[in-house]
Amino acid sequence: MKKYGIVAFAFGAPADILSNKLIAKIALEKAKMFNASVYTQRDILINGVEVEYAYEKSNNPSSTLRMARGAVDWAKRNGIEKIWIVAAKPHLWRCQRDLVQAVKESETAIKIHFFREIEDYPEDLWFCLNSTQQRTRSKKSWESREWILKLLPFNIYKLIANR
Predict the structure, then answer these.
(1) What's the CA gap between 12 and 136, in Å, rounded?
(2) How far apart are CA 36 and CA 15, in angstroms?
(3) Nearest residue to 152 (alpha-carbon basis) of 113, 100, 97, 115
(4) CATH number at residue 122
């Protein structure tokens, strides 16, 4: 039987903004459904299942790539064969890409999937004006930064994400 793990990526800060509450809710539901543990960031508060929080410096959240690498290390340590992603819809493409890259780097056969329910939520729902991270307050702020990350060659992106 395969062992599953849920990786929940925060979208903004703090934990009580709508986007992070929604990510936490979905991650908890799916963790209970699959009897899985969760790997996440400090701005995603989950109770009732086994959770491992990524190491992050205060006021300095992990980059998506650093979070993905931590998730793959966590999965390897725990014998997890399939990772299910929970992330905000606008962030999902990068979470998937970075997790796939982290799996390649680790030379493991971990499978990556996401819950299609994320697609059911309107994209504007994920942006929160009260986020402490400017880039997650509006679609315009997010896209002005994100299009650059989409165009960057991955080897350059890795240099930026590792800082």
Answers:
(1) 5
(2) 22
(3) 97
(4) 3.40.50
Separation of alpha carbons 27 and 88, rounded Å: 12
Tokens encoding 135: 């880039």
Instruction: Report the chain's mean pLDDT, rounded to a whole number.
Output: 93
- Extract the tokens encoding 152: 């960057």
> What DSSP element (H or E) covers 2?
none
Q: Which residue has the tokens 């990524």?
A: 54
* pLDDT computed for residue 60 by the predictor: 75
3: left (phi over 0), alpha (psi -120 to 50) or beta: beta
Q: What are phi and psi of 10, to 5 degrees?
A: -65, 155
- Global pTM value: 0.94
- Counting the structural domains of the chain, the total is 1
